[in-house]
């Protein structure tokens, strides 16, 4: 799939669940009570157990039939072996996203890169490798090196 890819783009849907409107029949299932009255969501809120699956299915339908495209939830990776091929694929994805009413988080989008981080991988023409995950590494400090936990 990615063996000949040289150009990569990554797009990110903006607040993915909030982009899915709920029908009136479904909205009442999201009712919550406050001191000011009863309210329900008009759009799919975070926390609904089936929300990730519903959004993933929606994104699969949006990118269905497009070559050089992988989607995982709100992240979409687009690639091509030639700049023109890559650009045509990006245009097709953006067109389908617009038709589906999906807005993008431009701060997280990257276009026409030779290296891109997607999910927990770094993807480049040289191949796919795990991205370093410095955020989860806890380095010992002098204060914590001798500390122990006790009640």
UniProtKB/TrEMBL annotation:
<dbReference type="InterPro" id="IPR043128">
    <property type="entry name" value="Rev_trsase/Diguanyl_cyclase"/>
</dbReference>
<protein>
    <recommendedName>
        <fullName>ribonuclease H</fullName>
        <ecNumber>3.1.26.4</ecNumber>
    </recommendedName>
</protein>
<dbReference type="InterPro" id="IPR050951">
    <property type="entry name" value="Retrovirus_Pol_polyprotein"/>
</dbReference>
<dbReference type="InterPro" id="IPR000477">
    <property type="entry name" value="RT_dom"/>
</dbReference>
<dbReference type="Pfam" id="PF00078">
    <property type="entry name" value="RVT_1"/>
</dbReference>
<feature type="domain" description="Reverse transcriptase">
    <location>
        <begin position="1"/>
        <end position="123"/>
    </location>
</feature>
<comment type="similarity">
    <text>Belongs to the beta type-B retroviral polymerase family. HERV class-II K(HML-2) pol subfamily.</text>
</comment>
<dbReference type="GO" id="GO:0004523">
    <property type="term" value="F:RNA-DNA hybrid ribonuclease activity"/>
</dbReference>
<dbReference type="InterPro" id="IPR043502">
    <property type="entry name" value="DNA/RNA_pol_sf"/>
</dbReference>
């Amino acid at each position: 799939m990615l063996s000949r890819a040289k150009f990569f783009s990554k797009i990110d849907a903006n607040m993915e669940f909030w982009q899915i409107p709920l029908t009136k029949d479904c909205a009442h299932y999201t009712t919550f009570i406050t001191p000011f009255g009863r309210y329900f969501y008009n759009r799919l809120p975070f926390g609904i157990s089936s929300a990730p699956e519903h959004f993933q299915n929606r994104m699969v339908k949006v990118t269905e039939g497009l070559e050089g495209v992988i989607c995982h939830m709100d992240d979409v990776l687009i690639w091509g072996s030639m700049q023109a091929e890559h650009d045509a694929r990006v245009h097709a994805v953006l067109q389908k996203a617009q038709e589906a009413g999906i807005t993008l988080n431009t701060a997280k989008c990257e276009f026409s890169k030779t290296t891109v981080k997607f999910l927990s991988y770094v993807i480049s023409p040289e191949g796919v490798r795990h991205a370093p995950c410095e955020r989860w590494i806890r380095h010992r400090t002098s204060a914590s090196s001798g500390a122990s936990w006790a009640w």
